[in-house]
Amino acid sequence: MNTLNLVYICSLTMLFCGSWSFVSNRKHLLNTLLSLEFVMLSVFWVMVLYIMSVGIEMYFVLFFLTLGVCEGALGLSLLISIVCSHGNDYFGSFNVV
């Protein structure tokens, strides 16, 4: 088996595990945000591997990484806002009225 194929399989396994964690852990907002960041990291890694194998420039990857950092900062600020207003990040304690 080629080493590059093994790296692709590991990267796609990372993406699947992050997606499974996002779907299965819905009780706490922090767990959800961490699994989203893991998915973003694995998608970033897959994009880097693909762009390196094709041989094009890396500007799109830097743009994607910037958007991932902005998404993480927005998620953390939302988490802090919810914890200050409700006292915890447990989704069961939110009232949707």
Structural overview:
By secondary structure, this protein is an all-alpha fold. It has a single domain (3-86), classed as Helix Hairpins (Orthogonal Bundle). Helix content is 78%, strand content 0%. The chain has helices spanning 3-24, 29-54, 59-86. α1 (3-24) packs antiparallel against α2 and α2 runs antiparallel to α3 (59-86). It is a multi-pass membrane protein. It catalyses: a ubiquinone + NADH + 5 H(+)(in) = a ubiquinol + NAD(+) + 4 H(+)(out).
Short description:
With 97 residues, the chain is mainly alpha-helical.
Main beta sheet:
none
Any idea of the CATH class? Mainly Alpha
Stated plainly, the CATH topology is called: Helix Hairpins
**H-E order:** HHH
Subcellular location: Membrane
Family: Belongs to the complex I subunit 4L family.
Membrane topology: Multi-pass membrane protein
Organism: Procambarus fallax (deceitful crayfish)
SSE topology:
Layout: H1 3-24, H2 29-54, H3 59-86
Helix pairs in contact: 1-2, 2-3
Q: Which terms would index this structure?
A:
single chain; 97 residues; mainly alpha; Helix Hairpins; transmembrane; translocase
